Amino acid sequence: MRSGRRPACLAAAAIAVAAFLAAGPGVAVGEPVTTPTSPASPAPPPAPGAAAGAAPGAAGGSTPAFGAYLDYGTRGVTRMARLSHWLGGADLRVGHTYLPGDRWSNIEGAPGFLDVWADWRTSEPDRMLVLNVPMMERNEKGVDDDEVRELLRQGATGRFDHHFRALAERLVELNVPDTVLVLGWEMNGITYTHRCGPDPEAWKTYWNRIVTTMRAVPGQKFRFDFTPSRGRDAIPWTRCYPGDATVDIIGMDSYDQPRGMTFDEQVREPYGLQAHVNFAKAHGKPISYPEWGLFRNGDNAEYMRRMLAWMDEHKPVYNTVTDYCPHGVWQCDDNPRSTAVYRSVLFGRTDEPDPAATGKPATPTVPTAPLVPTAPPVPTAPAVPAVPATATEPSADCSPLELGDWVEYWLGGKLCTRLDWFSRGE
């Protein structure tokens, strides 16, 4: 899914935009999220470097590993602890970010960009780092089909192998050789230059070359996640599947769309949720949901409830909700009812044994209060509101500007234009 929240340009461009805005009418800078806390102790994720063909399902217990996409840069890491606190100390074992797809040097993992994520991953042995990897530079530049076809064929002959070798070496150097790589995501659509449709055979050959190249780097334990968007889109995603030898996980990006489509229809549609589960089972692969969340149907609490239940039932290796408007829950005030559902379902969740497997009845996890308080109190999960609440309105004298997280990262927060600038000299 296209989003301005993903990295698409370099720091120099962000600084130039900032300078331009600063020269105009007054601006204000601020960080909207302010609730600090410490992260909960993580529980074990699936074993790193699992071999292709491993039995489907989540490893390390009955609870699927989960997290959220909170920002691609440093703020994404710092917000993990805050989200965990908001969820009553739930174990956020999955960190998810994206490599910028603007130029090859960034796809190789430019110095400084991945370090903070590597530090987060290695600070606890049981965490999981999920990294979306573009297969082409200029990945969101609207490159036409003819050029995409030619680029895919060049990739299939090995022209771009050295870029992916450099990325693999970089990840091993950072001590994150077990990273889950979501390579060429949503290839069945029309958004990205790394799309499959213009030449599926070349695309599959190119994928196989990338995986082979990265697996040849000493010390690597990567898992490669083949992740289309839900539904047919521009081409059936099964036509892009490169083969079991180079795929470790079969994922799906699944948002609440198109408008008016029920969750049951999302399950039953061609190339939908059930087809995804069936396909993965037939190929002996576990599943994942790297991107999911609300979209065309607004604050849809029923979608949120059903999607969470679907993942609990089918036990993906991991899932990460896309947490910004219009998709998200914690960082988006537009979806109060869905937010309450998400929080109530995942509040305090840890990787506990499956009660069905032990024969013991399920009981809610209630934290025991310490004799002497040593930390801020754990927040209480709210009930689901009966009616939608009104979204928070921006300040009357300040209009927020949507510049994308790459710009916001370098500015240190959001920008907004003061509406009273013309009268400040009076």
From TrEMBL:
Coiled coil: none
Listed Pro residues bias regions: 39-48
Residue stretches making up the GH26 domain: 36-351
Family membership noted in the UniProt record: Belongs to the glycosyl hydrolase 26 family.
Cited InterPro entries: GH (IPR017853), GH26_dom (IPR022790)
Active site annotation, chain numbering: E186 (proton donor), E291 (nucleophile)
Signal peptide residues on this chain, from the entry's feature table: 1-28
Comp. bias regions, Low complexity: 355-372
Keywords: Glycosidase, Hydrolase, Signal
Gene Ontology MF term list: hydrolase activity
Protein name: Glycosyl hydrolase
Annotated region (Disordered), positions in chain: 33-57, 350-377
